[in-house]
Amino acid sequence: MGRSVLVTGGNRGIGLAIAQRLTADGDAVTVTSRSGDPIEGLTVARCDIRDAAQVDAAFTVAEQANGPVEVLVANAGVTRDQILALMSEDDFTDVIDTNLTGAYRVAKRAVRGMIRLRRGRIILISSVVGLLGSGGQANYAASKAGLVGFGRSLARELASRNITVNVVAPGFVETDMTAELPEDRKKAILANVPLARYAATAEVAGAVAFLAGPDAAYITGAVLPVDGGLGMGH
């Protein structure tokens, strides 16, 4: 059996692609989701990462199934898009609590076991929006930008324990959400992407697999863009 891995928000989209890639690479993967619905080939823990007790319970599920978590992928996230003048405080704080504070909760829980093992990999899933900004997404961009500072601070804290912390910043990715965008909106997005296409979820998963693997042992505090060149220079 490979390493014990926990992927938050791993029931669909990018998170599921990451979980399936790491499973294919030989790791034993637990995913969290709010529904807790079963997924073939994966251990599933029902978890709302806004609740520290549920986070602790999800780690217990992973530990009992596959042993101490050696790789954490903090992927779970939400959007509540609105221009600032009309954005409610709840919409702002809910996005921050899920995307940024949620990453704090799962990383804090993961670090305890990794320090005992004296090894580990933490990978935070940010977004090109956190680097470029995006009108109508001040809450989302703030949460994703916060992951960069959070991850780099952890990288400095944990390097002496042989724990690396890195950030993956996807651009626009082929998911159920992007498939529902109007054609004119899709064309406007792609006009700003040098490679002129969306990323496949498998391409984001490949970047995560690299950072979780042996070839990335000397990489920490990095922000790896998977955005077709959209965020170039940031």
Task: Characterise the protein shown here.
With 234 residues, the chain is an alpha/beta fold. The protein has one domain (4-172, 201-223): 3-Layer(aba) Sandwich (Rossmann fold). The chain has 8 helices and 7 strands. A 7-stranded parallel beta sheet has the order 3-2-1-4-5-6-7, sandwiched between helices. Helix 3 links the parallel strand 4 and strand 5. The radius of gyration is 17 Å and the shape is globular. The chain starts with a strand and ends in an 8-residue tail after the last strand.
What is the topology?
Elements: E1 4-7, H1 13-24, E2 28-33, E3 43-46, H2 52-66, E4 69-74, H3 89-117, E5 120-125, H4 129-132, H5 138-158, E6 163-170, H6 176-179, H7 183-190, H8 201-212, E7 223-226
Parallel strand pairs: 1-2, 1-4, 2-3, 4-5, 5-6, 6-7
Helix pairs in contact: 1-8, 2-3, 3-5
